[in-house]
Automatic annotation (TrEMBL):
<dbReference type="InterPro" id="IPR043859">
    <property type="entry name" value="TbsP-like_N"/>
</dbReference>
<feature type="domain" description="Transcriptional regulator TbsP N-terminal">
    <location>
        <begin position="68"/>
        <end position="171"/>
    </location>
</feature>
<dbReference type="InterPro" id="IPR056163">
    <property type="entry name" value="TbsP_C"/>
</dbReference>
<feature type="domain" description="Transcriptional regulator TbsP-like C-terminal">
    <location>
        <begin position="173"/>
        <end position="279"/>
    </location>
</feature>
<dbReference type="Pfam" id="PF19138">
    <property type="entry name" value="TbsP_N"/>
</dbReference>
<protein>
    <submittedName>
        <fullName>Uncharacterized protein</fullName>
    </submittedName>
</protein>
<dbReference type="Pfam" id="PF23336">
    <property type="entry name" value="HTH_TbsP_C"/>
</dbReference>
Amino acid sequence: MPAEPAIPTAEGSLSIGSFADPLLVDPASSLLSAVVEAYREAAPDLVDPDVSALRAAADGSSARGSDAATPSTDLPSTSVLAAPVAFESVASGFREASRLAALADADALELLTLPDPQPNALLVGDDGGCVLVEAADESAPRWRRVGDDPTLRDRYEPIVADADPYRIDTPSRRRVYAAFADRCGAAAAADVVRLLDPGPALDSADPVGPRIRAYAVGARHGAHDRTLRRACEDAGLGSPSTFTRIKRRLIDAGLVETARVARPVGRPRERVVAVDPLAGPPIERVAAVLRESLED
């Protein structure tokens, strides 16, 4: 059973699961980040699994004949009613967004868009609720629990009922791994996940973004073009047409070639194959090779 996610407070910590049907209202980015971190600490293999955890989950799922995309969890399910800017701040990089997506996939967090700012951040449940006030020391954020009002949840139910879901465009690491393992094999899936873990945060402004990295890995493993594009689509990284454009860009840069593969029945298939300088370096160097070639 996972540990209990808790928010750090001046008094020690505040267990999210101590509230029945918890609802977090209008958290600042710092508070929402603390909640995501609390869940990550409680269940790291769910929120932020490494390659070995992803491989073990996939192997266990295969043995049971079930889907490995989202494991079962005993974590409290928290509704988060927040301004889009708070979600965007927490999900500013690929790794950070994938953590939030993992929690949403597992129904540990229900992400809802708050239409209007509230006077205070609140954590409420069916039987109680409190205001959360951030301490002044920004070097070690801690919150103070203020008050206890059992009517707060009822006040926010109409807003929750009418709130639009907040959509995360970034997939979880588990979804990426499962899609590539299914279509291209476990080795390719592991390399894709590793290449989405750069030293500095990988964000949407990176000229060598997640889509290019994923397709380049597929080429290094000699995947069939259609299979690779389907893997990228299943992973939630983009549409097949997006990866057709990426393939052309990599070909024009001299990083990828195509080879026709004859079949006994039907039209030949096309395999994408990485060539030097993309084919040779270890996976840790691939992003740098892509950047050097594509930015010339």
